[in-house]
Automatic annotation (TrEMBL), chain A:
Pfam families: YbjQ_1 (PF01906). It comes from Phormidesmis priestleyi Ana. Belongs to the UPF0145 family. Signal peptide: none annotated. This is UPF0145 protein HLUCCA11_03590. PANTHER family: UPF0145 PROTEIN SCO3412, UPF0145 PROTEIN YBJQ.
TrEMBL record, chain B:
InterPro entries: Mito/Outer_Membr_Metalloprot (IPR051156), Peptidase_M48 (IPR001915). This is Peptidase family M48. The chain crosses the membrane at residues 24-46, 167-189. Belongs to the peptidase M48 family. Its cofactor is Zn(2+). Residues 90-260 form the Peptidase M48 domain. GO terms for biological process: proteolysis involved in protein catabolic process. It comes from the Bacteria. GO terms for cellular component: membrane. The lineage of its organism: Bacteria, Bacillati, Cyanobacteriota, Cyanophyceae, Leptolyngbyales. Keywords: Hydrolase, Membrane, Metal-binding, Metalloprotease, Protease, Transmembrane, Transmembrane helix, Zinc.
From TrEMBL, chain C:
Belongs to the UPF0145 family. Gene3D superfamilies: Hypothetical protein apc22750. Chain B. It comes from Phormidesmis priestleyi Ana. The lineage of its organism: Bacteria, Bacillati, Cyanobacteriota, Cyanophyceae, Leptolyngbyales. Coiled coil: none annotated. This is YbjQ family protein. InterPro entries: UPF0145_dom_sf, UPF0145_YbjQ-like.
Length: 113, 288, 146
């Protein structure tokens, strides 16, 4: 169970609607993004880990936390528009600079009933 | 499907509300504090470790460095014997100057075929002077000051320390990828290293001064060479340039030494010891 | 010494000129967003029947944004410390909004009533050397219907 699966007081779906509910208003595109850099200490640890393989716990947590923030930012945009759900949520991750990654979430803000 | 309701976004959600300069200041402080701690700790450790290199290893390293010099050395030259004599006289005065016992391997003198006036020491006690320097000095006192300055570096094991430090910083830099990330960080480290080497120069100056006074009984004319070759004065930028350059002495450095003569009550008048004739030419035979 | 002075000049120029361009760009983005607010942008539309669609066409908007020297330097320090890269946020935000606007404006020129099923793509197109300032392409694409 990652931090993302925890409920926020707003419905998030990857579907084109909310099952059992009807979309009564659209507000358009909402997006949240955050850019994170890993720090040198973790870099060195990761360098060692790359020799033996396995999960990079530090990085997993870092990316989860960052992705959570990008979702929170998207949700905040939706709330500013007065929405109670974001449908068709998509994630994108990209490398923006050496050692830095952007976590990006976007969707459509709607009001459902 | 409900209707579309156009609404304007009133807040910048995706941008952290912090001033970029504040952010930079915060980052800079964090990096500087941790950097200084690491730099200081590792630097001291490296220079301490380097001075514990065995004499044989040191000789080997020194031989390798000297062999890799891009400049030709003049070896079978009677001037080398003269320099060796002068140096051993100076070394004998170390005791009278109360400078403590030196623990470096026996000196090896080399003359470099180079017109620039310079002298340097490397690990393994290789002391190199350029032909340019020999041609430029006008009295033995001047030459002795330059040589004593280099002896000061050897006495404090500066070549070894510098080597140890640069090895550690190069290793650390490549481990962290600092060398690639931006040109700024290496130059910060360079500045720190330069201030470190400035400190070494000052200590070597003091050593040389005390040694010269012990050897000749006075400090007269010993700074003549530096005064003739002093850095051009460029006003406010002087302090900055002084940081970068170590060998051509800046006016400030010369002034400091002159004041030190007065503070220590060392005589600054006395007869200059002449140099052997044709010291600027190979084997003292007049050059044409 | 000269290196340090060049560095400080580059930082200064990067900061002041970069900030100036950024605020100009933001002003333009905000004005254009206001202008085009009446056209809905949706991330769905692939699996629903669209009642009013007679015609459909794909629209792509893309922009490549580069970092200024000040931001690159801040980011290189941030790379040592770790955490949120504040200076890049505005860069990416600008790029993404610009890409959306370009797509939207093209769709409006075609006569679209809405743009649906929007997707984003971001790519780092910095040069071979790692020390080069980063250059990011942001692309937005979707289907315009009328």
């Amino acid at each position: 169970m990652t931090s993302l699966s925890r409920p926020v007081n707003l419905i998030l779906t990857t579907l084109e609607g909310v099952p059992g509910k009807e979309i009564i208003e659209h507000y358009g595109l909402v997006q949240g993004s955050t850019i994170r850099a890993k720090h040198v200490g973790k870099d060195i640890m990761a360098g060692f880990k790359n020799i033996v393989g396995g999960e990079l716990k530090g990085y997993t947590e870092l990316l989860q936390e960052a992705r959570k923030e990008s979702v929170e930012r998207m949700v905040k945009q939706a709330q500013l528009l007065g929405a109670n759900a974001v449908v068709n949520v998509r994630f994108a991750t990209s490398s923006v600079a050496p050692g830095a990654a952007e976590l990006f979430a976007y969707g459509t803000a709607v009001k459902v009933q | 499907m409900g209707p579309y309701v156009p609404k304007e976004m009133t807040e910048e959600v995706n941008i952290t509300p912090i001033h970029p300069l504040m952010n930079l200041a915060h980052l800079f402080a964090t990096v500087a504090v941790t950097g200084l701690l690491i730099y200081g700790g590792l630097g001291i450790a490296a220079s301490q470790l380097a001075t514990r290199i065995g004499p044989k290893t040191e000789e080997k390293i020194g031989a390798a460095i000297t062999a890799s010099l891009p400049v030709k050395t003049v070896e079978s030259d009677s001037r080398v014997a003269y320099l060796e004599d002068l140096l051993s006289e100076l070394q004998r005065s170390v005791e009278t100057a109360k400078l403590g016992k030196a623990e470096y391997p026996p000196l090896k003198v080399r003359i470099l075929e180079m017109d620039a006036e310079n002298a340097m020491v490397s690990a393994g006690s290789y002391l190199m002077v350029t032909e340019g320097l020999l041609a430029a000095v006008t009295s033995e006192n001047e030459l002795a000051f330059v040589l004593a300055h280099e002896l000061g570096h050897l006495h404090h094991r500066d070549p070894l320390r510098a080597m140890g430090r640069s090895l550690v910083f190069v290793a650390l830099g490549s481990l962290l990828g600092i060398g690639q990330s931006t040109s700024a960080l290496p130059s910060v480290v360079n500045l720190a290293e330069l201030s470190y080497s400035r400190q070494q120069e000052t200590t070597a100056d003091d050593y040389a001064q005390a040694l010269i006074v012990a050897h000749y009984g006075h400090g007269a004319r010993s700074l003549g060479f530096f005064e003739r070759n002093r850095e051009p004065d460029i006003g406010a930028l002087n302090k900055l340039v002084e940081w970068q350059q170590t060998h051509p002495m800046s006016s400030d450095r010369i002034e400091r030494l002159k004041n030190r003569f007065q503070q220590k009550n060392w005589p600054t008048t006395g007869a200059a010891t002449p140099l052997p004739e044709n010291i600027g030419c190979a084997n003292f035979t007049s050059c044409n | 010494m000269i290196e340090l002075i060049t560095f400080l000049i580059l930082i200064g120029v990067g900061y002041f000129v970069g900030q100036h361009f950024e605020s100009q760009h933001y002003a333009s983005i905000k004005a254009r967003e206001k202008q085009t607010l009446h056209i809905p942008l949706m991330t769905f539309g692939a699996k629903q029947t669209l009642p009013h669609a007679h015609e459909a066409q794909m629209f792509v908007g893309s922009v490549v944004v580069a970092n200024d020297y000040f931001k690159t330097f801040s980011a290189s320090l941030r790379n040592l410390v770790g955490g949120r890269m504040v200076v890049y946020e505005s860069l990416i935000d600008r790029g993404r909004r610009e890409a959306v606007l370009r797509m939207k404006e093209e769709a409006i020129a075609w006569g679209a009533s809405q743009v649906i099923n929007i997707r984003f793509e971001t790519a780092n197109i910095a040069g071979q050397q790692a020390n080069q300032a980063s250059c990011v392409e942001v692309m937005a694409y979707g289907t315009g219907i009328r």
